[in-house]
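I'm stuck. Please check this protein.
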Amino acid sequence: MRLAGLRNRESELKQRRHDQELEQLRLAEGATRVRERRDQIGRELVELRQQSAAERANQEVSEANLIAHQGEIDRVYAVFESVQSEHDDAQRLLEAQRENVRARERAEQEAAFNARESDSKINEIERSLEALREQISGAQAQRAGAQEELAGLEDGALRSSLHDMLARRVERERALAEARNHQEELGGQLRAADEERLASEQRLPPLRDRLGDLRLKEQAASMNHDQFAGQLAEAGANEESLAAHLERGMRPNALQAEIGRLNQAMEELGAINMAALEELAASRERKEFLDAQAGDLTEALATLENAIRRIDRETREMLRQTFEDANRQFGQLFPALFGGGEARLVMTGEEILDCGVEVRAQPPGKRTSTIHLLSGGEKALTAIALVFSLFQLNPAPFCLLDEVDAPLDDTNTERFCNLVKKMAEQTQFAFISHNKITMEIAEQLIGVTMQESGVSRVVAVDIEEALRMKEAVAA
């Protein structure tokens, strides 16, 4: 027992040592990451100081220019106010004209829609009339054939044939009644058999329970017999000599109590440990069992470590290849959207499985900077380039865009539309937009209007159909 306790204590100490080593490794890795982050923050602080100094110099120059041009600004501002009032008047007039144009366009669309509905209804009515004419022609032909057939039939032959059929019908109804009576008799026999089967099934569970109890008692008696036989064989007793001393009707419990009394008396005889050899054998068996388990665990641990290393290696290769492909696509799409410049993805750590990814973008006419220092439109274009570069790694048949062109000006919106048209050769795009330039590249427009308060209406426009209608109207 003491040896087992010492072994358990040794196992606990080894486990604790292993946990401390793991904790030490985690702390060392954390300290390394903290030092790397501190160095990175130091470099960024130096860059920020340099940028701050440059900004202060630019600010001083700007303040001098502002003071010099303040008077000019005041004069221009007065002119601007007068021009602004004229512009507001012109803008209101333009909005009114645009509203009239939109109302006329809606009226034209509704008229065209009503005309198409009327044409479809007329075509449907014509098809229905044609079908009715065909049905009338067929009915007339059938009527003529029936009249000819009726004229050619003889009344006497039909009456005799009818009497024969009635006689056969009466005979078959009689046979059907006999078959039904026979079926009812068979049904009664079947119900009686079912009742007998149910009664047998009701008597069967008690017999099964009784049989199960007898089997359990038999198993218990067999186990007791084997246990007592093992105890007798272990004690080296002679069953024939013991049988002569057994009293008739003696219970096993009484014998067990006598065995306990004798064992207690043997323990009180002296300090001789008769169970030491058994404990030694049990300890040896326990040691062999634990050694075998330790070997299995060592082998399993080696297998798991090999599998982890293989998975990490394959994961690193796949992640590196995916990162390089995404970086290449990002570097190609960014100049296409910005009309120049360059961009790349940079890993922020040495271990590819734990590092982060930083976006470095350099629009045309600006120096390299992180995406956080870009304007709103530049951030949007950079994000679009990154998303489309990731999308091209595993293209899907559909792509949904929700107002991604909202912060873009007209020039950048045209570049975005050109990229979408290029990618639309392999992917179907569905996008939500309020930009007229973006709407021009769509093949079909679906809008929601509210001509009446609280009543929405969906308006769909097929661009190709609208162009054909316009050409037809112009012709």
